[in-house]
Amino acid sequence: MSQELMLKYGCNPNQKPSRIFMQDGSDLPIEVLNGRPGYINFLDAFNSWQLVKELKAATGLPAAASFKHVSPAGAAVAVPMNDTLKKIYFVDDLELSPIATAYARARGADRMSSYGDWVALSEPCDKETALLLKREVSDGIIAPGYTDEALEILKTKRKGTYNVVKIDPAYRPAPVEHKDVFGVTFEQGRNEFKIDNSLLEKIVTEKKDLPEDAKRDLVISLITLKYTQSNSVCYVKDGQAIGIGAGQQSRIHCTRLAGNKADVWFLRQHPKVLALPFRADIRRPDRDNTIDVYISDEYEDVLADGVWQNFFTEKPEPLTREEKKAWLAGMTGVALGSDAFFPFGDNIERARKSGVEYVAEPGGSIRDDNVIETCNKYGMVMAFTGMRLFHH
């Protein structure tokens, strides 16, 4: 390990010089085992590592995250998958270890956004995870270690330039952090707030029953939000994020964005989608893009005659609005976290359309009564955490 690492450039090629270093003169807590990670790569690496480390501590399960531009596209813990999920995540032909399962879930939350992602693992990367990563488009990975087999596999990615970073899991940052903006130094205490089931004790709705799986999913949503650019909301089901809305100026726009992603995640499991007659030579990223078009209302316009032949052996029957509505009505048991209070009940109205039954938010709005009333109308359970989770 070294005290500093020179980077090719900063956020953009014109931003030079660029480096990462320890102000106290100590060694960096990371070691680059392959490749040459950049400025944004390391922002993703350090944020994503904190996320998976906290997920593992809170749930006791191996955790993984898929990051893009300093926000997670997906995050998950190692909950076993059914055959449908394995198929839509393109891992039905692989043997999956627990940590590989966590990453398959994390990347599967929003496969389009995860294209070219930064990967974080709470556990050492094993052969199974490396083989999964080998065939996906990704920029790099951070983990507390790598098996010899895994490292050799990862070194073959991107013509040998794939970024592989090892982090010291015992590293603890200073309690006060600094950031320079426009030549002015900002200082604040690190957000060391611990997120666990104790945050969910203040249930404010008429319905009080919060199953253990729902508690786990709400905790996952809140920890994910802690490392997502604000404003943000996160939908979670069965141990994985299924929709993350990040960096929006309006809370309802976050809820809609994340809800739409959750809907796409569920619609990808529709029998018509599973049976799409793709040509054998269509790559996974192109399949992902085409599936999103097929699910959208623009299918007939985008995949018109002369275009669909590029992807399918025969033109599929469209997935009608009525079919989509009926399928989405079957999505239930979803947990929703918000990094700040919901100012209006419209967020709950939108969340309900994506199967949300459990909600966790800080509370503190002058319209809390309206939000609680909306939850009661739909039989939801909502907990006030009392803790805002803004991240910038």
CATH architecture of the largest domain: 3-Layer(aba) Sandwich
- The number of domains is 3
Largest sheet: number of strands, sense, barrel closure: 6 strands, mixed
Overall geometry comes to globular
Distance between the termini: 28 Å
Please mark out the parts with pLDDT under 50 across 5 or more consecutive residues, or reply none: none
Radius of gyration: 21 Å
In spatial order, strands of the major sheet run 3-8-7-6-4-5
Please name the fourth-level CATH homologous superfamily of the largest domain.
AICAR transformylase, duplication domain
Order of helices and strands: EEEHEEHHEHEHEEEHEEHHHHHEHEHE
Structure description:
The protein is of the alpha/beta class and about 400 residues long. The chain has 3 domains: about 5-170, 3-Layer(aba) Sandwich (Cytidine Deaminase, domain 2); about 175-265 and about 330-385, Cytidine Deaminase, domain 2; about 270-320, no CATH class. About 35% of the residues lie in helices and about 20% in strands. It is built from 13 helices and 15 strands. It has a 6-stranded mixed beta sheet with strand order 3-8-7-6-4-5. Helix 1 packs antiparallel against helix 6 (about 210-225). The protein is globular, with a radius of gyration of 21 Å. The two termini are about 30 Å apart.
